[in-house]
Structure formats: structure tokens, C-alpha cells
Amino acid sequence: MAEQNFVDYVKICCRSGAGGSGSVHFLQDKNTAMGGPDGGDGGRGGHIILRGNRNVWTLLSLKYRKHVIAKAGVNGRGGNCTGADGDDVILDVPLGTVAKDAETGEIEFEITKHDEIKIIAPGGQGGKGNAFFKSPTNQTPGHAQPGGPGLEEWKILELKVLADVGLVGFPNAGKSTLLSVISAAKPKIGDYAFTTLTPNLGIVPYRDGRSFVMADIPGIIEHASEGKGLGLRFLRHIERNSTLLFMVPADTDDINREYQILENELRVYNPELLDKPRLLAITKADLIDEELKEMLLPTIPKDIPHLFISAVAEQGLMELKDLLWESINSAPKDAINLNLANPHRLIHGTRSKHSEEE
Asked: How far lies 353's CA from each of 149, 181, 284, 345, 346, in Å?
């Protein structure tokens, strides 16, 4: 997916349709000069609806659509004819889309399943015609209800990528290289910082035709939670991952210190991220020998499972998959992730046929 095509934040003005007015009408035909009330109800105004679509990966379609307007309902007519409802506007959004009120910042709902439908701006209710108000004590009502007004509100849509595994590390920790080796994803790879500018998703094949989804986000730097670098913008994407894979290069000066910085940035951004299962991959292991590995052991955090890997030399990758698979399937069901709604996570089935690259 091209970097300029990845959009994970939009602000749009939603204007739902007004309801149609009820009709004031009395029956008149060749046989009846002064009949009873037969004014029909007005139609409902059009809703603005968000619909989850597993084939959509970005909010790009809404980036340049600042105003979304639904049609008004049709007024009622005589002969007890109800007006037609206004046409709804349905916006397809990726799974993991969060809708917020732009003024208060309050989260209104989340889209996590394919074909899930949520109304973001309900249309106005249609007014009742005078036939509705007929009663034994008021047999010729001369009034009807006006249609209800539509809503006009600014909404914020944020995308939080749904994936089983989220990669967490400093720039040039080898995250993109790992994703490109163990999946069919083609992230940009370079020997300079912030090569990755947008999240990348890859479907990682596992044993017996099973698979899981891995997400690579731009590298985190110290104080990313305060807005430095690119981490703050993309940290929200790992809120939906069931397992976090921390990645620290073997040639770093202090593995424990780098891990603690990454952990602290997550804690400052959202302390609940640390409730997720975590693994530590010490990357670029092909650059060191067994003696150096032994020397590094005292600098490795003791409270997290770890292993040495090399994506380039393909060392330890199957062992890494085994650990990730075990972690994914042992994650608490009430953890802060919605991956059970992810159509690509097939714990018992075969690998998804949907490509991870649009």
C-alpha cells in the first residue's frame, strides 16, 4: 500500500436528512364530498451509516469528503400515503474504525466486524399525518406533525489496525525486515531512520495451514508519547494487538535500557498496553557469535520471554512463530484487543485467501 494512500484519521461533517412532514388531507372523491382524515405520515430522513468492510484498509475514501449529506424524507400525502424514507448514506470503513464526537472527543462506537452497521447520524423522524390523530372525540383533526430535523455534527474517525501481533521497536530495529521475510508483505526497507512511515500488515503462515496477522508500525523514539518522532501518531494501532513483540538489535549498547524506554513510552501513552502479553526478540543475531550472546545475557530483561533471531539469515524464525502463536492463543479474552472480530485470524481454519497487500 502506498504511503500516501494510508489514511487513519479523518474529520467529517455528517448531515442526516430531515423527516418528511405529515399530511393534512380529507377524503374527497366522486362518492364522498366530505370524508374523514386520510393524511399520510412523512418519511424518515436518511441516516448516515458506517459499515465495516474487511476489504478496506484505510480511510482514504473519506479524506477529501468533508461533508456527508443524506436526503430528507418525503412528505406524506392524502389517501393514507406515507412518504418515502430519505436515502441512507453508507460509508464503508476498515475494521478497527473508532467514531468520536469532534467537540467532546467522546467515543461513540467501534466497528470491529465485517458488515457491522452503526448509525453515526440518525435521520429525522417522519411527522404523523392527520389520520393518525383521528379519535372518537376528534373525528376531523386539522393538524399534522412536521418532520423531525436531521442532525449536523462533526465526527472524527480513527483507524486502529486490527492485528494479532504488533511490532514495537526503535527505528532500524529490523521490524520491516522481519515482516517481509515471514509474510508476503512488502514494507519499505532502508538503512536510515523512519523508513516505515505508515503501518504495514502481513499475514504470517504457520503450521498446518494456520496463520496470524502481524502489524509493523513506524519506529518509536524516546518521548514519542509526548509527540516526538512518528510514534505518537501510530501508537494507537498497537492498542488492538493481542501480543506485543518488542525488538531490540543485538548490537545495541544496552538491551535492557532500550527495552525499558520502549516500555515506558507505552506506559505513558496508555498503561493498559502493558497488560498485553509481551515477547522480546533480539534481532540481528547473525552479527554476534555464541560467546557474545552469553555476554549479553546479563543485560537482557528478566521479566519477559526472549530469543535471538536474524531475519536476514533466517535464524530463530520458526521458534519465534511458535512463541507468538502460543502467546496469541493464551491472551486473556478480556484483554484490550478486538482481534476475535478479525476475519483474517483463523485459529482453527485455513489461511485467509485475502491478500494483505492492496
From this structure: 45, 19, 31, 11, 11
Q: How far apart are CA 249 and CA 243, in angstroms?
A: 19
The vertex-305 CA angle with 301 and 307, nearest 5°, equals: 95
CB distance 95 to 52 below 8 Å: yes
SS3 call for 113? coil
**Confidence band, pLDDT 50/70/90 cuts, at residue 179:** confident
CA distance 298 to 293: 10
At position 237, the amino acid (one-letter code) is H
User: What are phi and psi for residue 224, nearest 5 degrees?
Assistant: -60, -35
The grid coordinates listed for 100 are 468520536
Phi–psi pair at 354, nearest 5 degrees: -75, 130
Burial of 327 (0-12, 13-18, 19+ CB in 10 A): buried
DSSP label of 214: E
Task: Measure the CA–CA gap between 69 and 45, rounded to whole angstroms.
Answer: 11
Q: Which candidate, 261, 52, 268, places its Cα nearest to that of 160?
A: 52
Q: Which of 35-49, 155-169, 171-185, 236-250 has the highest mean pLDDT?
A: 35-49
Question: In a 10 Å sphere around its CB, with 0-12 CB exposed, 13-18 middle and 19+ buried, how is residue 273 labelled?
Answer: buried
DSSP three-state, residue 224: helix
How confident is residue 340, by pLDDT bands cut at 50, 70 and 90?
very low
The residue type at 193: A
Higher pLDDT, 334 or 151: 151
Kindly list the strands in the beta sheet with 107-111, ordered across the sheet, starting from the edge strand earlier in the chain.
67-69, 9-15, 152-159, 97-101, 107-111
List pLDDT tens digits, range 17-28: 999 999 999 988
Write down the pTM of the prediction: 0.66
